[in-house]
């Protein structure tokens, strides 16, 4: 017996997960890209807008509006890089970290309900496999 392609199995799951995240994000006043940016800034030492765009796979010009919104909400700070006045250094604020953590906790509570459909051993194996495969470098 042949199995379905991985993308054919993962794509519907990804769409369902994103759809489940949207009401959570709206309730917290964040866009999906805003959440992605806060998560990236909270987990990695990303210093510049260009490095952030590359890290999250977004066009540099695409994230400027997202950064403006997050800065206006007090969730991140941008300062001029003293070594390169054209560059902006990014830092998540304490309020941005609180917002990101609250959103992530709510999203993961929803995910836990979904994962609850799997037996505990299968759930643990699925999460380990997903962590391994998602950490692979792009080919």
Automatic annotation (TrEMBL):
SUPFAM superfamilies: Winged helix' DNA-binding domain (SSF46785)
Pfam family, one: MarR
Domain HTH marR-type: 3-135
InterPro entries (UniProt xref): HTH_MarR-typ, MarR/SlyA-like, WH-like_DNA-bd_sf, WH_DNA-bd_sf
SMART domains: HTH_MARR
Organism domain of life: Bacteria
PANTHER family documented for this protein: TRANSCRIPTIONAL REGULATOR (PTHR33164:SF95), TRANSCRIPTIONAL REGULATOR, MARR FAMILY (PTHR33164)
UniProt protein name: MarR family winged helix-turn-helix transcriptional regulator
The species this protein was found in: Kutzneria chonburiensis
């Amino acid at each position: 017996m042949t199995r379905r392609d991985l993308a054919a199995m993962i794509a519907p799951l990804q769409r369902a997960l994103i759809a489940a995240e949207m009401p959570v994000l709206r309730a917290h006043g964040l866009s999906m890209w805003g959440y992605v940016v806060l998560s990236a800034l909270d987990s990695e030492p990303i210093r510049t807008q260009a490095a952030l765009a590359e890290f999250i796979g977004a066009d540099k010009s695409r994230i400027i509006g997202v950064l403006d919104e997050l800065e206006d909400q007090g969730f991140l700070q941008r300062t001029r890089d003293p070594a390169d006045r054209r560059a902006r250094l990014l830092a998540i604020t304490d309020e941005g970290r609180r917002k990101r953590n609250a959103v992530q906790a709510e999203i993961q509570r929803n995910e836990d309900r979904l994962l609850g459909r799997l037996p505990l051993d299968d759930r643990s194996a699925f999460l380990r496999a997903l962590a391994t495969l998602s950490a692979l470098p792009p080919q």
